[in-house]
Amino acid sequence: GQQVMQIPQYQHVQEGEDFTTYCNSSTTLSNIQWYKQRPGGHPVFLIQLVKSGEVKKQKRLTFQFGEAKKNSSLHITATQTTDVGTYFCAGRGKLIFGQGTELSVKP
Amino acid sequence: DVKVTQSSRYLVKRTGEKVFLECVQDMDHENMFWYRQDPGLGLRLIYFSYDVKMKEKGDIPEGYSVSREKKERFSLILESASTNQTSMYLCASSLGRAKNIQYFGAGTRLSVL
C-alpha cells in the first residue's frame, strides 16, 4: 500500500539555525499537505501543494513539492522557539501521514 | 472556525472494559476519521467515514469499531480494551473527498490498566 516516509524523526537546532524535513512517498501523490503539532496540542493544517514542482512560502517556512510528485520538503529559515513541535506531511487520499519530524529549538 | 470536539481529554479504563470515544464536529463535514498517535509511529488511521452510516477500515482497525449514526458524530468503540490500546486518540473531519484538509480535535489520552 501507499507509504509516506518522513525524515529525520528528530532534529535539535540552535535558535537561528535552519531546519529541513523531507517527505517521500512510494507512489505518486495528487497533493501533499503539511501539518504542525505543538507539544501537547493537535495537528493543525499549514499548507497544501498540488502542482508538480510547486513552491510555497509562509514567512520563514518554504514548502516544495517534487517534480515527480513523490516527495516534498519543508524548510524553516532561522528557527525560533515558536517553531518547536512535530511537523507531519500527509499524502492525498484518505490522507496517509508520515511519521513526523519533531523539532526542538535551543534558545 | 471548524470545531472538532472530543468528549474526554483523559480516560483511564481497565482491561476488558468496553470504551466509547466520542467526536462531534460542527461544520457539516462529510468525512470523519479516527487516528491513534504513538511516539515514533506518527498518526495511524483506524477507521474513517465518508457519510452517515458508512465506515471503512483504515490501516489498524483490529480491536476497534466505529459508529456514525449522525453526520456530526463519529464514535470509536473499543469492544474489550487491552493494554496495547493505551494511546492518544485523535478525531478529525474534512469537508469532502475533494476538499480533504483535516481539522483535528484536541485528542483523548486513553490509559488501559
Describe the structure in your own words.
The complex is a heterodimer of chains A (107) and B (113). With 107 residues, chain A is mainly β. Chain A has strands at residues 4-7, 10-14, 19-25, 32-37, 44-49, 55-58, 61-65, 71-76, 85-91, 96-97, 101-106. Chain A has a single domain (4-49, 61-91), classed as Immunoglobulin-like (Sandwich). Helix content of chain A is 0%, strand content 54%. In chain A, the strands form two sheets. In chain A, strands 2, 4, 5, 9, 10 and 11 form a six-stranded mixed sheet that branches. In chain A, strands 1-3-8-7-6 form a five-stranded antiparallel sheet, with no helix packed on it. Chain B is an all-beta fold. Chain B has a single domain (4-112), classed as Immunoglobulins (Immunoglobulin-like). In chain B, the strands form three sheets. In chain B, strands 2, 5, 6, 7, 10, 11 and 12 form a seven-stranded mixed sheet that branches. The N and C termini of chain B lie far apart (37 Å). The chains are: A mainly beta (107), B mainly beta (113). Chains A and B meet through strand 5 and strand 10 of A and strand 6 and strand 11 of B.
Describe, in short, the structure shown.
The complex is a heterodimer of chains A (107) and B (113). Chain A has 107 residues and is mainly beta.
Which key phrases capture this entry?
heterodimer; A: 107 residues; mainly beta; Immunoglobulin-like; six-stranded mixed β-sheet; five-stranded antiparallel β-sheet; 0% helix; 54% strand; B: 113 residues; seven-stranded mixed β-sheet; three-stranded antiparallel β-sheet; 12 strands
Mean pLDDT of chain B: 93
Task: Supply the number of structural domains of chain B.
Answer: 1
Low-confidence region ranges of chain A: none
The helix-strand sequence of chain B is EEEEEEEEEEEE
Strand runs of chain B, count:
12
Largest sheet of chain B: 7 strands, mixed
What's the quaternary structure here?
Answer: heterodimer
Name of the level-1 CATH class of chain A = Mainly Beta
CATH fold-type name of chain A: Immunoglobulin-like
Distance between the termini of chain A: 41 Å
The largest chain-to-chain contact, stated as pair and per-chain residue counts, equals: A-B, 21 and 22 residues
